[in-house]
Design goal:
Bound molecules: pyridoxal-5'-phosphate
Number of domains: 2
Structural class: alpha+beta
Strand content: 15-25%
Low-confidence stretches: none
Distance between the termini: 17 Å
Helix content: 25-40%
Length: about 300
Amino acid sequence: MTPQRKVYLNGEFVAEADAKVSIFDSALMFGDMVFEITRTFNGKPFRLREHLERLYAGLKILEIDCGLTIDEMEKETHHTIEVNRPCFPDGLDFQIMHDVSRGPLGFYQSIFPEGARPTITINCWPLTWHVGAFADTYETGVHAVIPPQRSVPARLIDPKIKNRSRIYYQVANQQAQKVDSKAWALLTDEDGFITEGTGANFFIVKNGELFTPEPRNILRGVTRDATIKFAAEVGIRCHECNLEPYDVATADEALFTSTPFVMMPATRFNTQPIGTGAVGPVTRGLLNTWREVVGVDIVAQAKQYAKDAES
Ligand SMILES: Cc1ncc(COP(=O)(O)O)c(C=O)c1O
C-alpha cells in the first residue's frame, strides 16, 4: 500500500485530512498570509531557496514573525520532503507548498490555550493534475484575454508579496472566461500596460527577442527569472519594458511562465491569432532549453500525467 502523505502543521506532521486551520485565523479573515509553490524536477526541488527568500520578504513587509528563521524553514521543508518521499514513485514530480499566516486574531485568543501563534503549513502534492491538465495546451497554446478587472497596483497591495488576497484574480478569470470558457486572463495596470496572468508571468516574442513587463506591478516569478537567464544562455535577449495590448496583438509569439507548468504558449489574444496562431519556434526552443537544464521533458511529462490522471 502507498504510504499516506503528511502535512507539516506548526511543527507536527498530520494526515492531509487533519491539516485544518481555524476559522478565526487572520488568513481567513483578511487573506492575511503569504505562500509559495516550489516544484521538483526528478524529485529535486528547483530553486527552493529563492522561493523561501520571496516568502521571507513578504513576511518581513507584513511584519509576520513566523518563529522560524529562513534556514530553519529550509530544514523543515527538506524534512517534509523526506517524510513524503515514499509517497512519490520515481518519475512522479511534486509541488511543495508553503502557507504562512499571522495566525488567529487576538480577539479569539481565549479559545487557543496554547496561545495564538502564526500558522505554518508545508505540504507536498503530486503534479499529476496541476501539470496533466495542460498536456494539450502545450501543443495548441492558450487564449489570453484582457478582462475589465485590472491588476491591483503596487501602491495598494504589492504584488511582489506572494499573498493570498487574490479575489481580483478570480474575478479576472471569470470575466475572461465569458469570452472563451478556457481563456487565461491577462491583466493590465492602471495605465493599460500588460502586467501578468493570474498565476503566471507573461512574455512576447518579436523578431526573435523576448519582451516582458518590467518587474514593477507584478510578482517577480522564479520561473520568469530562470527563463530570462536560460534564454540569455542560448543567445536570446530579453527586454523588460512596458508592453501594451497592441504589442501582444502584433507579436510573433507569446507565453506564460509559472512554477508548475513552467512555460505555456499563448497562441490567441483577445480572439485573434498571435503570429501564425501556432506554437512558435522560440517558444519550442525555450522549452527545449528548459528540458536540457532541468533534465525533464516538460511536455512529455504533462502528457504522461494526463494519462495518469485518467486512470
Ligand atoms: C500572480 C502570479 N504571477 C506570477 C507567478 C509565477 O511565479 P513563479 O514563477 O515564481 O511560480 C505566479 C505564481 O503563482 C503568480 O501567482
